[in-house]
Amino acid sequence: MAPTPPLSNLQTRDLASVVHPYSPLHKLDQMGPLILESGNGVYVRDTHGNDYIEGMAGLWCTGLGFNNEEMIEAATAQMRALPYYHQFSGRGTEPAIELAEKLKEIAPVPISHVFYTSSGSEANDTQVKLAWYYNNALGRPKKKKIISRIKAYHGVTLMAASLTGLPYNHMDFDLPFDGILHTDCPHYYRFGKDGESEAEFVARLAQNLRDMIEREGGDTIAAMIAEPVMGAGGVIVPPKGYFEAIQPILDEHDILLISDEVINGFGRTGEWFGSQSHGMTPTTISVAKQMTSAYAPLGAVMIPEFMMDALKSQSEKIGTFGHGYTYGGHPLGCALGVKAIEIYQRMNICERVRSMTPLFERRLEALKDHPLVGEVRSSGLLGGVELVADKATKRAFDPKQGVGPQTAVHLQKHNLILRPIGDTIAICPPMIIEEDELNALFDRLELALDDTEHWVAKEGLR
Ligand code: PMP
């Protein structure tokens, strides 16, 4: 590892006082945190004056980049008019109403109501609570288990982390909770068997799901949750026909399908929702992140009329619907959600993403010639590059060798921010990215991969 320059005053203060989520806490002293101070379009600037292409849109979320003036004005106007109000006890605000109406307008399936949260994790926790409440309303108290998938990411609150299918989110946190079942991850490159076609892989996964449901009893399972394209598990694009194969099995057992669109939503895959790009017909939907372009925290759960009716009937029986968050439906977030969707509509965001996708795919595809690259995958402007020790056998590096994290160090040196997920490099630029910026992103990624290749050779990691 290159010697780290002396830490700045801000970096030292940061390390003395801040716990960084999802970080190697034991190594931050040595690496030094990266402190950002401003943003412009797809660029962010650190406190040393270095500009980076933010190729991850922060955490897959700043679809409109880092200084959208209309968004700033919408936020300012809302702060002046009413900086806070809540949704409890039948209270409301105009931005919350307007955003719910907009979400219904763009929804891929019939949606009648919207429940607000402050984050994606809270949206997914709410999904589980609603599925339970719904089944209690229907007099099916046993129908409560939730199916998720290995490598899924649904957040980090206790239930959302239980739904998540990644070891770091479970190990040493005493998770997952009972009643959460993890079925296969639909990653053909990694989990397809030798000689198995993609269609056979899909059929095997569907059969495994059917076996799991029959083993557990369909009358004990409330819902399955799935990201159309898995994000934080490594940008895993499902094979053709995957959702079409599993959906009838869920329907047979009256199991709701929850689409976690927290990353996929609002144009990212070239449609308003990833479920539309990947043959999925969900019952309910979780959204957050790009809904406000992340200019303020906000999440939401979108539900159909028959669920709303059940919630009402159960609330009537017991007196109230006892769930809600202080900041759910915050007027600042809702005003920003309304404005972001208005901008996405005006700029034809799906069309725009689709028009940039051929360049994105071409540049990704070209990386396959690189000695480190085992697979590239993408959907719209969401991509992943999986690095391997041996391309022919797909042999992965030992995670302890830290090839992905070291690549992130090289990327940063070339003024590009991407996210290593193990040895997969995720790419998810703001959706406003222009062609020359996208080309610059890939040029820098290529330089960083060359640096990693030299480092791997020098350290003898193969
Ligand atoms: N679901 C998905 C698909 C996500 O990617 C994330 C966050 N990366 C979440 C849920 C959790 O969202 P939050 O961090 O806002 O709680």
Characterize the structure shown.
It is a single chain. With 462 residues, the chain is of the alpha/beta class. It folds into 2 domains: 34-67 and 349-459, Aspartate Aminotransferase, domain 1; 69-346, Type I PLP-dependent aspartate aminotransferase-like (Major domain) (Aspartate Aminotransferase, domain 2), CATH 3.40.640. Helix content is 42%, strand content 15%. The protein is built from 17 helices and 15 strands. It has helices at residues 9-17, 28-31, 57-60, 69-81, 94-106, 120-137, 158-163, 167-170, 188-191, 198-216, 242-252, 274-277, 305-318, 331-346, 349-366, 403-413, 435-459; strands spanning 36-40, 43-46, 51-54, 113-117, 145-149, 180-183, 221-226, 256-260, 284-287, 299-303, 373-379, 382-387, 416-417, 419-421, 424-427. The strands form 3 sheets. Strands 4-10-9-8-7-5-6 form a 7-stranded mixed beta sheet, sandwiched between helices. The chain has a 4-stranded mixed beta sheet with strand order 1-2-3-13. A hairpin with a 2-residue loop joins strand 1 and strand 2. The radius of gyration is 22 Å and the shape is globular. The mean pLDDT is 97. Residues 59, 119-121, 124, 153-155, 227, 231-232, 260, 262-263, 288 line the site of 4'-deoxy-4'-aminopyridoxal-5'-phosphate. This is Aminotransferase. Belongs to the class-III pyridoxal-phosphate-dependent aminotransferase family. InterPro entries: Aminotrans_3 (IPR005814), PyrdxlP-dep_Trfase (IPR015424), PyrdxlP-dep_Trfase_major (IPR015421), PyrdxlP-dep_Trfase_small (IPR015422). Keywords: Aminotransferase, Pyridoxal phosphate, Transferase. One of its GO terms (molecular function) is transaminase activity.
